[in-house]
Amino acid sequence: MSKQPSGMQGVRNSLTFFYLFEFEQNVRNTTGSVYPEYPTRRQNEERCSLFNKKKNGMKTVIKQVVGIDVAQIELVVSLGRMNEQLDCELYAYKVFPNTTKGFASLLEWVNKQTNTAVSVQYVMEATGVYHESLAYYLADNGQDLSVVLPNKISNYCRTLSTKTITDKTASEAIARFGLERKLENWQRPTAVFKQLRQLTRERDQLVGERTVMKNQLHAEQSEADPYLKSVERVKKRIAMAEAQLREIREELTDRLNQEAEVKQVVTQLCTLPGVGLLTAITVVAETNGFELIRNKRQLTSYAGLDVREKQSGTSVKGKPSISKKGNRFLRKAMHMPALTAIRCDDRFKAVFARLVAKHGIKMKAVVAVQRKLLEMIYVLFKNKTTYDKAYLKTTSVGE
Predict the structure, then answer these.
(1) φ and ψ at 310, to 5 degrees?
(2) Could you tell me which of 277, 376, 282 has the C-alpha nearest to residue 328?
(3) pLDDT bracket for residue 380 (50, 70, 90)
(4) Assign residue 131 a region: left if phi > 0, alpha if psi is -120 to 50, beta otherwise?
(5) Can you tell me the mean pLDDT for 106-111?
(6) Please, are residues 200 and 282 in contact by the beta-carbon 8 Å criterion?
């Protein structure tokens, strides 16, 4: 057995360690006052990659994601990272107000919590219009941003073992989704296309409201004893809606005349059978000038005109249908042009007749013509040309 030190000996040992520690601190303080640029011990440890690897369990961070659940009032944020072994970790959480001041606080907090040597990807849902201010702010500050459709996040949440759904778990799911997926960066829409999209959507809403008021007027006038003042008020509302529709059409024309390049594109698209000014403007505005569209298949999927089929074994065989998981304004804009093209153009009329003879469903054939017409709009835009009715005859003769 080792001999225990006496009381006086223990005091001497304690004093020795105390004086050694005090001496070390005096040396560091003197060095810092003489050489202000001399790094501290903590700074040396942070600069040493071997120390950082040892501190983090020899794992290097390769990806960092900020998952944001956007609400009207607040932003619920979760931070996640992925190491070289592809392990995901959620390590920070905070709530910020959905204001410009909150956006600045968010960036400052993220810069403190993340590794500056690795890029940071911001991921959020397309929550109506509440996410747009933050998206514009991040884009203006040069941050990588991805905006994901809400149905993708909700479907991804079902694959997790999370039973409780809160804003925090939603932001964590968004962060995990960004870590596990390779997402495309969101691009700020062009000002002219954004304004044209707002005008066309406002017009679409007004047309719907006018239809409701016309039906109401018909019901009021058709009853046994109509109240004349109510009828007059409904007529005034219809007249006001029609005046606003004329005003919107004038604004669309004026805005188009200010952009010569966009006007030329719209003029080329209007050479297609059934495609008028409003249809061409709607398609160009809803796709932001086809900026993110790479091929016809992607365009039809964005419009929700892609075919969905459910089949499994011999017992499950559902009827194929369009997915409708896309931009409903594009689908609505292509309906009447397709009917006009079937009536006025021999090529589309032949396509319609062939499909009806095949399965006997007229509306199914009309949807196919809608898809064909939308694809041809993209082809004309991409090739910067007009519609040639005799194109097939010309190419067959040339061959």
Answers:
(1) -120, 115
(2) 282
(3) very high
(4) alpha
(5) 95
(6) yes
List of E strands, 98-224: 120-125, 144-148
Record the pTM.
0.76
Take residue 164 and report the two structure tokens written for it: 């409780």
DSSP-derived secondary structure letter, 2: P
Inter-residue contact 262 to 291 (CB < 8 Å): no
Tokens 């003769």, located at residue: 397
User: What pLDDT score was predicted for residue 231?
Assistant: 93
> Are the beta carbons of 127 and 150 closer than 8 angstroms?
yes
Band (pLDDT 50/70/90 cuts) for residue 399 is: very low
Q: What is the DSSP string of 57-109?
A: TS--EEEEEEEEEE-SSEEEEEEEEEETT--EEEEEEEEEESSHHHHHHHHHH
Domain boundaries, the chain: 14-47, 59-180, 189-258, 269-311+319-399
Q: Quick one: CA torsion of 75, 78, 84, 87, rounded to 10 degrees?
A: -130
Return the SS3 of 163.
coil
Contacts 24+ apart (CB under 8 A), 199-206: 199/248, 199/251, 199/252, 199/255, 200/252, 200/278, 200/281, 200/282, 200/285, 200/286, 200/329, 201/329, 202/248, 203/245, 203/248, 203/249, 203/252, 203/278, 204/329, 204/332, 206/241, 206/244, 206/245, 206/248
Encoded tokens for 83? 């190491």
Supply the CATH classification number for the domain 59-180: 3.30.420.40
For residues 287 and 298, is the Cβ–Cβ distance under 8 A? no
Which of 155, 13, 126, 18 has the alpha carbon at shortest distance from 68?
Answer: 126
The alpha carbon torsion through 130, 131, 134, 136 (nearest 10 deg) reads -110
H or E segment and range at residue 312: strand 311-312
What is the three-class DSSP state of 146?
strand
Chain centroid offset of residue 91 CA: 25
